[in-house]
Amino acid sequence: MTLSAVASVFLVLFSVIDIPGSVPVLLSLRKQGVEISAWKATGVAALIMSLFLLFGTQVLGLFGIDPSSFAIAGGFIILLIGLELLLGITIFRDLATPGSSGNIVPIAFPLVAGAGTLTTILTLKAEFDTTSIGIGIILNLLLVFIVLKSLDWLNRKVSDQALGSLRKIFGIILLAIGVQIIKSNLLA
Q1: Are 27 and 151 in contact (CB under 8 A)?
Q2: Are 13 and 117 in contact (CB under 8 A)?
Q3: How far is CA 14 from CA 43, 118, 138, in A?
Q4: How far is the C-alpha of 67 from the C-alpha of 115, rounded, in Å?
Q5: Is 36 helix (H, G, I), strand (E, B) or coil?
Q6: Which residues pair with 101 in a beta bridge?
Q7: pLDDT, one tens digit for every residue, the chain (188 residues)
Q8: Between vectors from CA 179 to CA 163 and to CA 60, what angle results, nearest 5°?
Q9: Distances in whole angstroms, Cα of residue 164 to Cα of each of 37, 101, 148, 169
């Protein structure tokens, strides 16, 4: 483990998780009345990412799933979330119920610990040691926690008009990310 390895892992995971890019999705969920607990969502994401770091290949193998198929499934989920944002429709109906929880779906999975993140963790294992990857995961989860804890403040500071615009922009970006994940794994 070196500082350089930890920094590399952190930056790769930061770009894949893209928690700043998820802020419009999170604020949109909040405005729909979905309860978000920073502790629960971050904890579930930490559990998923840690288990995948340690046992990801084996778990997928138990189900006869290769990492590309897993990534494609995650790409479809990201596509659906992008469509929700862009078109103003609700696909994940149980999440739109005021007072319901979005801690596990869609926050912990797929926004934070989605197929792209989990596939990236598997890829990083080929180049970096488990400790460096673990520290990179912890640092990213710390940022996720800070953003989730700041949602009330962000909700007060971001107008409905700005949120609507951001929702459309990030809807298109999520659609593109979903297509990219599907395309790159279909060709793999």
Answers
A1: yes
A2: yes
A3: 17, 13, 11
A4: 9
A5: coil
A6: 35
A7: 899 999 999 988 988 888 887 888 888 888 888 889 999 999 999 999 999 999 998 988 999 988 888 878 877 877 887 888 788 777 755 444 555 677 888 888 888 998 778 888 987 887 899 999 999 999 999 999 999 999 989 888 878 788 778 778 878 887 887 788 788 888 76
A8: 110
A9: 23, 22, 19, 9
For tokens 């579930």, what's the residue? 44
Distance, CA of 188 to CA of 184 (rounded, Å):
6
Residue listed under structure tokens 């700041």: 150
Structure tokens at 8: 């590399």
Q: Where are the domains of the chain?
A: 3-186
| Residue in this structure with the two tokens 């778990």, named with its chain if needed | 59
